[in-house]
Amino acid sequence: MQGVRVRAWVGTIVFLVVTPGVVAGLIPWSITRWQIPWTGGWASPLVIIGAVLVAGGIVVLLDAFVRFARADGTPAPPMPTKHLVVVGPYRYVRNPMYVAVLSIILGQALMFGSWGTLLYGALVLFLVASFVKLYEEPTLEGEYGDEYREYRRHVHAWVPRLRAWSGAATSKSSRDA
Question: Which of 158, 170, 16 shows the shortest CA–CA distance to 93?
């Protein structure tokens, strides 16, 4: 069990650095060089809104990744969890990692006044939504069956619920994470 837990944490950290680290960090940085536009500087409302989106996205992203490691798996397909993770941010939205990454990208577009980053975010949204629809949802349904179908009926893919889904409190997976 200890070996599984260590592999889960290591795998989760590596996946976090490689995937969201590149998609939400390295690529936006390569577009913006993280340069605040002179007009308004740090006090600009768009910079402040962007910073809030980035900070919020990072918090949600890290929390979502921790949930996978605690469930002895990773978000990466080769090492999934035994049970569907439906706790924490997953009680509000089915794809909190993707929503968080998109929030981080949008936040950077606002902070740095970058149309290029905004267009990049739109491309990421298209690619991620396609991946979710064509691969992830069918895979999760095949892997977790009724558990996933029940979850999918109650929790939206992209727009968070205002109140947490209470079904997660009675799910087997909520005890595992």
Answer: 158
* Domain with 62 in it: 2-176
**Measuring CA to CA, which residue among 134, 156, 137 is closest to residue 145?**
137
Q: Do the beta carbons of residue 102 and residue 20 sit within 8 Å?
A: no
Exposure string for 76-114, b = 16+ CB within 10 A, e = fewer: eeebbbebbbbbbbbbbbbbbbbbbbbbbbbbbbbbbbb
CATH of the domain at 41: 1.20.120.1630
Locus of tokens 């978000």: 75
Q: Is the pTM of this model over 0.70?
A: yes
Tell me, what's the pLDDT at 4?
85
Token pair 């996205």 is found at: 57
pLDDT tens digits, one per residue of 62-90: 999 999 999 999 998 888 898 899 999 99
Number of separate domains in the chain? 1
